[in-house]
Write a structure and sequence with these properties.
Elements (H helix, E strand, L loop, with lengths): L4 H5 L4 H23 L3 H16 L3 H14 L4 H13 L3 H14 L4 H13 L3 H14 L4 H25 L3 H14 L4 H13 L3 H15 L4 H12 L3 H14 L6 H23 L3 H14 L4 H17 L3 H14 L3 H13 L3 H14 L4 H16 L5 H5 L7 H14 L7 H21 L2 H8 L7 H5 L28
Helix pairs in contact: 3-4, 4-5, 5-6, 6-7, 7-8, 8-9, 9-10, 10-11, 11-12, 12-13, 13-14, 14-15, 15-16, 15-17, 16-17, 17-18, 17-19, 18-19, 19-20, 19-21, 20-21, 23-24
Length: about 500
């Protein structure tokens, strides 16, 4: 028998501490009793609110009130049944079955609960348990049309699942996929079926479909660690490092030191960071940074083929942008050996143009078109390559000044001054003077074209704006007049040139 509060307070010394502990214990017991005891009015209020939320489709809010109603009266089979139906609507099949089973313990003749449990078993691929429930319903209601329809599908489905397992055993994955897909129309919540189809998709090299099934497995089992790990592994295998990193972080939210997820996360984070850095540098045309990041990807991932493909692909593009054409061609080859891709073929063509291998560039653009008939970059590239090929038979203004195609105006002017001083005709005599005059005219023409944005654009597109034939076709230049027509009679260098 509990002591009165006044007697507890009369304890002295060490007894006071004991009295305080006993007092706290009594208060906790009192509060627990107060929390767990809900009046019928409270329970009815929760049920009414749950019904209102359910009618509005706010299932989570409805579930909260049904929880409270069940806690107020754990033996009310109707309340348990209502909560079970909400669990079912939310896809929480395991909890729904628990509630329906508890209902049937309290009221074995509650047919609606037995039908619902049988349906859950059927949709979960648990055909034996579904048969037991449906047969018991049919003993009481032999003409129940819905149950008869469900029941008639169970035996054939059992046979088909057995056949699927035989197909998988004999590595006939393609036919297994088709039959599992049929079974999932009856049993969309069957984890073994989705897991088996995911494995079959992997076997036939369809990883994206496999990932879709694994996501369903993860949702149905509410597995938040191993399921996320498996999805992340598959995403990484197909080269989707950023999505793989998101998935592995979901795993670590539930277990920060997961034995599989954590070490994979450390590696994945390094690779993904470098891929993102490479892509950002490529977009900003910071080719040196792009190359550094791409090479880091290959260092961090020496094995996984599609991740290495992403590394080679970005290096193919950025070495081309940096006009390191030999290295670019090697990286393009490495990427194309792994997977044929239209954009990589176009990058390879750009590198080939940089080495003046025009026929090979045209073939590479054509390979891109063979993969993607509507690829605008490849179509325009072929036309440009043909123009550059024709142009190569004439003057190359970049070569004349010895500058890269990416040279700035300041670099071009500097190169012009240097070349003009070297080939100034006053520095030569006799026959050498004639050669120098020709060189000097070409140098002046190169400066004129490459320091004029519009003329340079025309030249980069394969047209010579100073070509009189191009001018006659409306290609620019001096409107039909020879660009150095005033030099054609006698030497153009009867005066001194002065350079500051």
């Amino acid at each position: 028998m509990a002591l009165p509060l006044s007697d507890l307070l009369m304890f002295g010394g060490g007894d006071k501490k004991l009295a305080a502990c006993l007092l706290l214990l009594l208060l906790e017991l009192f509060l627990e009793g107060a929390e767990s005891s809900a009046s019928p009015a409270d329970i009815e209020n929760h049920l009414e609110l749950g019904k209102e939320f359910l009618a509005r489709g706010q299932l989570s809010d409805a579930l909260t009130h049904y929880h409270a109603a069940v806690e107020g009266d754990a033996n009310n089979y109707l309340t348990l049944f209502k909560r079970g139906t909400v669990y079912l609507a939310l896809g929480k099949t395991r909890f729904a079955v628990q509630d329906f089973s508890r209902v049937l313990e309290l009221k074995p003749d509650f047919t609606a609960a037995r039908i619902q449990r049988g349906v859950v078993h059927m949709k979960s691929g648990e055909y034996g348990q579904a048969i037991v429930d449906f047969e018991q319903v049919l003993q009481e209601e032999p003409n129940n049309g819905l149950v008869l329809e469900h029941y008639s599908r169970l035996a054939p489905a059992q046979e088909q699942w057995s056949l699927v397992q035989q197909l998988i055993l004999h590595s006939d994955h393609q036919n297994a996929i088709g039959m599992i897909t049929q079974l999932l129309e009856i049993s969309p919540w069957a984890v073994p079926f989705r897991q088996a189809r995911s494995d079959a998709y992997i076997a036939v090299n369809d990883p994206l479909s496999a990932i879709a099934d694994l996501r369903q497995v993860n949702r149905l089992t509410q597995d938040s660690t191993e399921g996320h790990y498996n999805i992340a592994q598959l995403l990484y295998t197909i080269g989707h490092a950023t999505n793989a990193l998101k998935e592995i972080r979901e795993c670590l939210k539930f277990d920060p030191e997961h034995k599989l997820c954590f070490p994979f996360y450390k590696k994945l984070r390094k690779v993904e960071k470098q891929l993102v850095n490479a892509e950002q540098a490529r977009e900003e045309k910071q080719f040196a940074d792009c190359i550094s990041a791409g090479e880091a990807v290959l260092r961090h991932e020496p094995v996984e083929t599609m991740i290495r493909y992403e590394g080679h692909k970005v290096l193919c593009n950025c070495y081309t942008g940096d006009e390191q054409f030999g290295k670019a061609l090697q990286q393009c080859k490495e990427a194309l050996d792994i997977m044929k891709d239209a954009q990589v073929y176009c990058d390879r063509a750009e590198a080939l143009l940089g080495t003046e291998m025009y026929d090979d560039a045209i073939h590479s653009y054509q390979a891109a078109l063979d993969l993607e008939e509507s690829n605008t970059r490849a179509k325009e590239g072929i036309q440009r390559a043909k123009k550059l090929q024709k142009q190569s038979e004439r003057r190359d203004y970049y070569k004349i000044l010895g500058v890269k195609r990416s040279a700035t105006k300041q670099e071009i002017v500097k190169a012009y001054r240097k070349a003009a001083q070297k080939w100034h005709p006053d520095n030569f005599r006799d026959e050498e003077k004639k050669v120098a005059e020709k060189k000097f005219i070409d140098i002046a023409a190169a400066k004129e074209v490459l320091t004029d944005p519009e003329k340079r654009r025309q030249f980069d597109n394969g047209e010579d704006p100073l070509d009189p034939e191009a001018a006659q076709r409306g290609g620019g230049g001096f409107h039909g007049e020879h660009p150095f027509g005033h030099f054609q009679h006698g030497s153009p260098f009867q005066f001194k040139f002065h350079f500051n």
